[in-house]
Design goal:
The protein has 87 residues and is mostly beta strands. The chain has one domain. Helices cover 9% and strands 20% of the residues. A three-stranded antiparallel sheet has the order 1-2-3, with no helix packed on it. A hairpin with a 2-residue loop joins strand 1 and strand 2. The longest helix has 8 residues.
């Protein structure tokens, strides 16, 4: 779990989609990337440690990214229920 401010370059709207469980964020161990963002449509984007997106989105399958742990934000407001998007 990380504080959403860690990803300074990630827009607030994307952070909200992650908090709501619509998009998923995972830690990855790849050169030049710290996270992988998976959309509700299955699109995959590598992210830097600050949340910036590389110039060209990756077309790789998320399983090929070897995702580690799922990421949640420690400063997420409490909701009645949590939705988890599993890749």
């Amino acid at each position: 779990m990380i504080h959403s401010d860690t990803l300074k370059s990630l827009p607030r709207e994307l952070k909200e989609l992650i908090r709501d469980g619509i998009y998923s964020l995972y830690v990855v161990d790849r050169p030049g990337a710290a996270f992988v963002l998976v959309t509700d449509q299955g699109q995959v984007y590598l992210l830097s440690s600050t949340g910036s997106i590389p110039p060209a989105p990756s077309g790789d399958d998320v399983r090929a990214m070897d995702p580690k742990e799922a990421v949640a934000f420690s400063d997420a407001p409490p909701y009645g229920s949590a939705r988890i998007n599993v890749a």
